[in-house]
Amino acid sequence: MAKLRHSRLQAKKLSTVTLVLSMLFMLTVVLLMLLGLGIFSLPINGDDSPPNDLTSYRRMASERGKGLGKRGEQWTEVLSWEPRAFLYHNFLSREECEYLINLAKPYMKKSTVVDSKTGQSKDSRVRTSSGMFLRRGQDKIIMDIEKRIADYTFIPVENGEGLQVLHYEVEQKYDAHFDYFLDEINTKNGGQRMATVLMYLSDVEEGGETIFPAAKGNVSAVPWWNELSECGKKGLAVKPKMGDALLFWSMRPDATLDSSSLHGGCPVISGNKWSSTKWLHVEEYKL
Ligand SMILES: *[C@@H]1O[C@H](CO)[C@@H](O)[C@H](O)[C@H]1NC(C)=O
């Protein structure tokens, strides 16, 4: 009798265990169904890492270097594929533009051009602006701008020449030219110039556009066509706007020289034009 009672107790215990187990199983099934339907999701990692798209790249890039002053909304505009030219709006803040101008002002000298035969600098009627070079990594603010250029172009800071600051007064201009070299001397350091980032440090009331006279496509389709000077209408034109940066490539993706990168600075008609140029080489440019 006692034995029977014992086994009955055991059977009861067993059925309780079975019940608990089956309930756990049911719960698992329900949970799996909810997960499968996407109604419920498991937290995979705590930090909310940014989604893997270009907006997050841009956010990361702009958050890395805070820079001087506050920049307006930034966006890029494809201007042309022949030449490959892009306009980055509000690349620099007003404070950064003013900082560069004030840093350069005491050292401005009449600009020269490179003689393609000798590789030497020479005076020229082709280029009537004045300018000076800043040192690469000269100070914190310049390092910050140079890092931003590297992030934007995907070309390392080491491949860049020091920033050149340029000033054009009324009637001053730079006739159409290429940024790449056709001589051996100028490509010794860093190899060929691959790309140029031209930053506008001031607005220009009238004239002073950057033009690409050999650009393919309908150059009169730009929204600012009616605001262009006569010179600006002779090609694909970019109107200087303080803080904007124009990126264009002197080389095609297959590393051949792109003759459609021919460009010039239109004469300033009224106002003053300040700009800063960063030339980027295919290899490290030794200082
Ligand atoms: C170029 O673009 C302008 C403005 O959109 C248009 O009026 C003109 O017809 C275009 N020209 C050609 C040749 O497509």
From TrEMBL:
**Alphabetically ordered keywords of this record:** Dioxygenase, Endoplasmic reticulum, Glycoprotein, Iron, Membrane, Metal-binding, Oxidoreductase, Signal-anchor, Transmembrane, Transmembrane helix
Instruction: Please state the Enzyme Commission number of this protein.
Output: 1.14.11.2
Q: Which residues cross the membrane?
A: 20-42
Q: Which reaction does it catalyse?
A: L-prolyl-[collagen] + 2-oxoglutarate + O2 = trans-4-hydroxy-L-prolyl-[collagen] + succinate + CO2
> Which Gene Ontology cellular component terms are annotated?
endoplasmic reticulum; endoplasmic reticulum membrane
Q: Name one GO molecular function term.
A: iron ion binding
Q: What main location does UniProt list?
A: endoplasmic reticulum
Cofactor names: L-ascorbate
Provide the Fe2OG dioxygenase domain boundaries. Answer: 159-282
Top-rank EC class of the record's enzyme: oxidoreductase
Compartments in which it is found? Endoplasmic reticulum membrane
One Pfam family assigned to this protein is: 2OG-FeII_Oxy_3
Q: How does it sit in the membrane?
A: Single-pass type II membrane protein
Source species, domain of life: Eukaryota
* PANTHER family tied to this protein: PROLYL 4-HYDROXYLASE 3-RELATED, PROLYL 4-HYDROXYLASE ALPHA SUBUNIT
Family, according to the entry, reads as follows: Belongs to the P4HA family.
Q: What is this protein called?
A: procollagen-proline 4-dioxygenase
